[in-house]
C-alpha cells in the first residue's frame, strides 16, 4: 500500500519526540538531544518527519483557498448563511481581505511553521549526523522544503523576514522580495548536487533533484513579477534540466484523470513533487476536496460515508475555457447539468417540498412534497442577499455552480478525509512553462517550439486536431484547463496581467492585492515587522 510510512518513514513517535522538546516538564531523558535521539539512519529520517507533516497540514486548506478563491477559478458564497464565516471565504473573491482575514493568517502561520520546523530539523541533523552523503541529502531535502515555503511567502506576501537559525528568537525585519528571491534561488542551486537524482518510490513525497529544478523554473518564469527583471532563458534552462533527466513523461489521455484518484502515487509519471495523504496514518494530513466540492445530493452516487457540504464551485468565466472541445478528457473533471448515478442512466433525484426546492415559492401548497432531478446550473445568483453574497437556503441555491471533482471522491475513507495525493509540481507544467518562456522572448532549445510543446500536452488530452499556432492568450487558457484546482491559477493570473480583471461579483482592480497584508498576529509576535505599504492605512 502506498503512503506516508512506507515512503517517508514518519511514525508518530518521531513527531512526538520533536514536539516534546518544547515541554520543559518532560524528563531530560526524553528530550530530543543528540545523545538520546537521533542516533541511527532510521532516526535521522524520522527527525525530518515533522517538516512534511506540517507541510501537509494546510496545503489543501490555506494554500488552496488563497490561490484559487482569489481568482475566477472558484468561489465560495453563502447559502442561507452557511459558510459566511465572517466573510473569510468571500473576501478572497472580492479582494477586500483585511489583516485579520483567517485564510491570510493561516497561510502566513503555516508557511512560517514549515520554515521553523525545517530550521529545527536542520540544526539537529547538523549536530547529530556524521558527515557523508546521507547527511548532505537529508539536509538538502530540508533546505528545499524551506525554500518552497519561502517561495510561497514571497509569492503571497512580497517582502518577508529571512530566518534560518534555529533557537534565535530575536525579532527579524523584512528582507526585500528581491533578497528573498535570491535566497531561495541560492538555496535551491546549492541543494541540487546533493539531492537524490532518482524519482519514484525512493523519493516520493520528498524533494529530489528535479523538484529543485522545477521550482527554479517556476521562480524564473515569474522573476519579472518578483524582481522586475525577466529571467526567461534561465527558466528554459531549468526546464531543460527536468526534461533531460528522462525521469518524467506526460500522462496519456486515458490516465490523465487517474493522476488525481485516491490510489494515485509514485506510479504517476508526471509527479515531480506531490504531497501524500493517508487518513489511516497518524500525521497523514487532511485533504477534504470531496467535502467541499461534491453536492450533498450526490453522496449515494459516489458511495461516500459522509454527507458532503459542497459550498464551493467554479464561475462561468473560468468554465468557459472548457466549453469548446467536447473531446478534451479534462472536461470530465467537472460535474455539470443533470446528474445521474454511476451507471450514467439512473437520474439522481431529491424529494423535498415546493418551498424547500424554492424558498421564494409563494403558492399555498409550499409544504407539498416535490421530487426533482438534480441539475447543476452554471450561474451564481445572489437570490437571498446581495450584501451577504447569499444565494439562498434551498435546493436551487445548493445546486448553483459547476463542481470540480478532479481529486476524485474517496469512498474508501471512513471520514471526510481522502487518500488522493496532490501534485505541487508536475511534468506538464515544465513543458508549458518552457513554451511560455520562449513565447515571452526566451531562446528556444532542444528543437522545441512553443507550438510543439503545447501540442505534446494537447495530444495527450484531446482527440481534436493539433494546433497550428499558439499565442500567450492560448497558453493561458491551456494552463487553466490543465491545472484547474491545482492551486496555480493566482500565480498565472498575476503573471498574465489578469488578476485585476473583473469576474463574478468582483470589481476590484487594485494591483496592491497581488500580495496579501502581513497578518496582525505576525506583527504582534515580531515587533521588527512592518505592514506591507499598500495596507498601512487599511
Overview of the molecule:
- By secondary structure, this protein is mostly helical.
- Among the domains are: 31-195 and 508-538, Serine Threonine Protein Phosphatase 5, Tetratricopeptide repeat (Alpha Horseshoe), CATH 1.25.40; 289-295 and 306-404, no CATH class.
- It has 21 helices and eight strands.
- The protein has helices at residues 4-8, 12-20, 41-47, 49-68, 88-94, 102-128, 133-157, 177-191, 209-221, 223-227, 232-245, 289-293, 299-302, 316-319, 354-357, 395-398, 427-439, 450-458, 472-482, 489-495, 520-525; strands at 271-275, 334-335, 337-338, 349-353, 369-373, 375-376, 403-404, 422-426.
- A two-stranded antiparallel ribbon has the order 1-8. Strands 2-7 form a two-stranded antiparallel sheet.
- The protein is globular and about 80 Å long.
- The termini are far apart.
- 48% of the residues are buried.
- The model is unreliable at 3-7 and 9-30 (pLDDT under 50).
- Keywords: Cell outer membrane, Membrane, Signal.
- Pfam families: SusD_RagB.
- Residues 215-535 form the RagB/SusD domain.
- Would you tell me the structural class of the helices and strands? mainly alpha
State the order of secondary-structure elements, H for helix, E for strand.
Answer: HHHHHHHHHHHEHHHEEEHEEHEEHHHHH
User: In CATH's first tier, which class of the domain at 31-195 and 508-538 applies?
Assistant: Mainly Alpha
Averaging pLDDT over every residue, what do you get?
92
Distance between the termini: 51 Å
Number of strands: 8
CATH topology of the domain at 31-195 and 508-538: Serine Threonine Protein Phosphatase 5, Tetratricopeptide repeat
Strand order across the largest sheet = 1-8
* Sequence stretches where pLDDT stays below 50 over 5 or more residues: 3-7, 9-30
Secondary-structure arrangement, i.e. CATH architecture of the domain at 31-195 and 508-538:
Alpha Horseshoe
Determine Rg (CA atoms, Å).
24 Å
Given the structure, what is the number of helices? Answer: 21
Shape summary: globular
Strand content: 5-15%
Biggest sheet overview? 2 strands, antiparallel
**Roughly how much helix do the residues carry, as a percent range?**
25-40%
